[in-house]
Amino acid sequence: MYTTKAAGRTLNVVVWGENRHEQIEPHVAALYPDGMHNTIKNGIDALLGDRVSVTTALLDDPEHGLSEEVLATTDVLTWWGHAAHDEVSDEVVLRVQRHVLSGMGLIVLHSGHWSKIFTTLMGTTCTLRWRSEHDRELVWTVNPSHPIAQGVPHPIEIPEQEMYGEQFDVPTPDELIFISSFSGGEVFRSGMTFTRGNGKIFYFSPGDQDFPVYHHPDIRRVIANSVEWAASATTRREIPVLLRYDTDDFFTGHGYDGPISAEAVGAALDAKSDAAAEAATTSGPTA
Amino acid sequence: MYTTKAAGRTLNVVVWGENRHEQIEPHVAALYPDGMHNTIKNGIDALLGDRVSVTTALLDDPEHGLSEEVLATTDVLTWWGHAAHDEVSDEVVLRVQRHVLSGMGLIVLHSGHWSKIFTTLMGTTCTLRWRSEHDRELVWTVNPSHPIAQGVPHPIEIPEQEMYGEQFDVPTPDELIFISSFSGGEVFRSGMTFTRGNGKIFYFSPGDQDFPVYHHPDIRRVIANSVEWAASATTRREIPVLLRYDTDDFFTGHGYDGPISAEAVGAALDAKSDAAAEAATTSGPTA
Amino acid sequence: MYTTKAAGRTLNVVVWGENRHEQIEPHVAALYPDGMHNTIKNGIDALLGDRVSVTTALLDDPEHGLSEEVLATTDVLTWWGHAAHDEVSDEVVLRVQRHVLSGMGLIVLHSGHWSKIFTTLMGTTCTLRWRSEHDRELVWTVNPSHPIAQGVPHPIEIPEQEMYGEQFDVPTPDELIFISSFSGGEVFRSGMTFTRGNGKIFYFSPGDQDFPVYHHPDIRRVIANSVEWAASATTRREIPVLLRYDTDDFFTGHGYDGPISAEAVGAALDAKSDAAAEAATTSGPTA
Amino acid sequence: MYTTKAAGRTLNVVVWGENRHEQIEPHVAALYPDGMHNTIKNGIDALLGDRVSVTTALLDDPEHGLSEEVLATTDVLTWWGHAAHDEVSDEVVLRVQRHVLSGMGLIVLHSGHWSKIFTTLMGTTCTLRWRSEHDRELVWTVNPSHPIAQGVPHPIEIPEQEMYGEQFDVPTPDELIFISSFSGGEVFRSGMTFTRGNGKIFYFSPGDQDFPVYHHPDIRRVIANSVEWAASATTRREIPVLLRYDTDDFFTGHGYDGPISAEAVGAALDAKSDAAAEAATTSGPTA
């Protein structure tokens, strides 16, 4: 049985940042002097106040800042990466996947579309077309009653942005919330939700290291809305498991003992062994 | 630009079988004396005739029978596995995934829900509840105009079956076609489609090694329908890739050169080197 | 621009009831001595407390209790009807539709599937198969992280119920939350959401005049959850309209002047008039 | 039980046209000298050849050319209307709706978004934003393996078009196939499928009386693809109905006798009559 979300519970949010562009490229550092992760964190803090407790975690932290202990108490994780997707350890990716499937919310931002965690959860290449040439981006709402779309104009105007265009190779989303156009003429499904296991995922494309998009008040509003949306409706965190249920008992699941009984395997091996002893030249199918 | 499917083209279908239960368990061999894979193959042959060319591939074949050459000419692959999911090599799984994303159809049958290829494409645990106790299964159509649902009664009756029950941990399907009930009272979304990349996937749960389900005429009809449905609408096979497009050129994509220019990385390293020489005690951020 | 929902705002809920069976059939009156509408109201009150202000409206009230004034301040309307769908005036149906499209939530219960308001909003026949023979109904959750599914067991057990079975002729829902099985073997998509205009709709099938389903604590929990879910995320109520926008002005819509300019129509009529005067026998196309 | 579509069956297609602009506005007549309906018909004929038999029907024909006899043998109906939506009789609209729910395919083109038949089937206002100022439209494919998207470039370029922009007030589509951008910056979900009853519906926005869009080879290809897609997979035409099924008989439905037995109603009326005779002042509930 699920338990309802405690009213007024403070949500623990972790803003994960790759934090490489800011260290290498002066023009990025100029836009984000405290790092993009802190700009994103500040936006969430400013809009959600004491409804959230926000911390940051970085690629260069031990375990990328995403230990089992940290994730176990995280309600929503936001993810921005770009230049160093390959440096994220597979072990941490599988750990994050397990927590998402168990109910942790995940907000994947912009170039995070090509992160290991997003492609692992989607099962597709998550590729797209792109161009970084100062296109104007307009973000249009196509799902006006969705909680993530509240409090922003229609459209949101971003004076300069990297272009991301279709085809975007992701599964059909649960919900399509935003579609962007770019001054060059391309379109992009820029805000989409996905449910995976017990976890809620929101992908939101506006945002780039080369442009001050994470300072944009409407973009901050969407991210804050999505944090509240992605927080699990329950306080229990658990991954789906395969369980056997006896007839007429709907509530007591039993663990898995394997696909074939040990007796059957043993008898089969014995039989094969006997047969082999009798006729070593037999060329039948093997188990 | 896509090219339309050549009318009358023969579809190449590969029926993949684990072929272990049939070798180990006499009661399975009695139900499927030629192996489950040949029973499935025969059903497709009988219903689709010269519209298809069907072959089989087995776990114990070299490369599990799924070499690059085989997959490159396969229109639709059907997958049944159960006892030996772990023995399928990761290399072959990634190869099959690549071909699905490029446009090969995939039909995942029954216990294939827990196969590496299905969990990789879904991104979830693909777990469920189950019981093998001779439940009657009724397969109800909820999408009556779908091509996969044509030519079968409503409901399909399966006298004895393994029970598969909700919650089934898969992403929201593109289309829900069948819902099953079991005499014990459980329900299951037993026929669902998913699009991944350019590939079409159909999961269909009826079918088990312990029961003669793959001899059932209605189940054979659904599988045959799904093979035709999953065949790509195009004759071109290609995986989605990330490409850069110049402004006003929508048709000439350029390959990816990396997230940060070599000059920027070099300059940053030089600057850091100089700074380090000046003051070895500086404790700023590192790249 | 949308404004966010005021935190802590009390939701105005109207429980609409047909209130005929209770008057005519003693066994229904015995189950629901205050009418089904009051039983439903009491469940919402008990679970949502001061977060809601719940009133009832009945078929036999003036304007069925659904005047423009009432609807204008209603956040969520629940609808139960059965024997007298035809007695609901078309004018009130169109009024309710307009308010749903403008953002009012709507919860359609059980036999409300065949109400005028539901078929009008769905565009389909909303027919199904049924049998009232004391089937046990099990309600299984297939969307475990959805807010409507919180706080109830998996499955919900209803000892006796009318059977509703597939095919249920409704559009593909936005979200499938519950699937029911019946002891006779039928299945039904028993909990589904639909978005129409700015309004959110939840259809929930458990509940019948012949059984005490609306006294069932889990059913009451689902209905209460759905009331909170269906309340609009915004405080503004407005119906979508067709508007013309000048180039580069995304925010100032202009009203519609008709499909063809008055000048063009006038000129065409003049021309036709002249032509008619010249040759009355001309048999060309007419405007 | 459903019967499969006869291979090679010729599809009967009816192209419905309002045929008013062509009569009134010389610039429209110049673009479409035979009427828009014939241009659309010719495109389907040219691409599908002897796989279809295409006729036209016009607003000014008796019964708008859509008699019961015509619709009964129509596999797919295309609909273009604009200036005279209100002149379409409600009787014909309900007749077309019935045939769609029974399995006839429907292709709604451009300004048909505001037709009675489309708003009736959708249940929403079907409004949008618009501007007729020679915008360039680009039509991007977001569902590349869909049969309707085959054989066209990505994107389709339309040099001049009326702008249609979001928010487009339609229900969430079953499938989103195309998204358009306009040179003014707006976006529009320009190709969407909907299932209603046993019928398949495709809405496609490119096309206008003021521009030669229906002469565009890619637009003609999409319309031809959609005609083949929308044709029913079955040869049987039937509307969903409400039927009662006895326990353990899944295949014999019984007609509906009304919600309350005649005996119960009679008894209740008798009882009320008696009570009224006894005490005329009683102010209890009324039936």
From TrEMBL, chains A, B, C, D:
It comes from the Bacteria. Residues 12-230 form the ThuA-like domain. It holds the Pfam family ThuA. Transmembrane segments: none annotated. InterPro entries: Class_I_gatase-like (IPR029062), ThuA-like (IPR029010). This is Trehalose utilization protein. It comes from Subtercola frigoramans.
